[in-house]
Design a protein that fits this description.
alpha/beta; Pectate Lyase C-like; 5 helices; elongated
Length: about 425
Amino acid sequence: MGGFIILTGIMNSKKDVKISIILMLLVIYFFSVETCLATDGDILYVGGVGSGNYTTIQDGIDHAEQGDTIYVFKGTYHEHIRLHKKINLVGEDKLYTILDYNGSNDTVYVTADGCTFSGFTICNNNNTSYSGINVQSDNNKITNNVIANNSGWGFYLYYSANCTLANNTFIRDSINIVGNLPSWNTHTIKNNTVNGGEIDYYKNIDNQTISGDLGQIILANCTNFTIKNTSISNADQAIVLGFSSNSSVINNSLSNNTFGIRLQYASENIITGNTIENNNYGIYVTHSFNNDISENNIYSNNVFGCWICCSSNGNTIYLNNFTSNKASAYDAINNQWYQNGKGNHWSDYEGLDEDNNGIGDTPYNILPDGRNQDLYPVVYLKDDNKENKTYGFEISLSICAAFIVILWKKKLR
């Protein structure tokens, strides 16, 4: 670099000055690249034109040592990769360094602690049993990626702690967290989006209100939150409460997600007034207790309107409108599907209301085996009740009577 500075100093012509500036910029560029890739270990290369470069990413990973950096040149790579040692995996350009894998595995599977994964597009894994990125280890950094159109989970954090997810762009994908409390409330999740909407991740805080159009909402070990008037669509999971309690989810519009609302280890929350449509599961409840689920419009969901399992009990579900779901509800535990003599409206209810009191004469059986029942299935909804029908009928009679009187008077003339 010193010789280069001396050389530029003795150049007098404009042409020489231009050449010197170009050379200096090139030196600065390559110096910056090497600085970005600075590591305690070696740098290995995948793709590109170098004679010693690896042709597949997994070959580079398998030949790397702990702490090495693998730099992947632009291109489309059709492979499943496993980060089974602590390395830095860096793509040249996140829009053009593409992992397009469609097989019987996750596209990226991280089992080692302390990895860095940055600069890729992970897309088009059409196997619903697998994920774009599956992390099952701790202290990893997943940054500056595009995660798009994976049929399973876009990003799956499974019993992992202290991971950083930052500056990632999700398209028709989002984040799924599973595990114990540290698996939920130890991460740094910031500056990520789903379909252009922000991912709001809150951990270990209380007394907040969330509203507006967002990409995904995740509460981890939070209390006294209010989530209201949001609209979320085309995510893996729209609103998620994990290890969170005494919160309200009110008047939200959730559509075309895998899960509209998911509760895991969540207790004493209120879910009311939401429109939940065209998801796979409208409301999905596991390991959760004493939640109040009422007055939601739950319709046209592709698997179940409401699914309750895995030791969840003491939940009360009533005055909801279950309409045109592939299956209305599933409850294999012990929950109550009515309150104060009123249950839910079920579009697939086949019973009668012979006494015309608006409540079905026979219970509605909840899948899988009818051990749980809605004892008071609601036959008429608020906007479709007997009184409204009678009122309309009386108006029709009045109109008809007036018309007959007019004709009779004309005939007398």
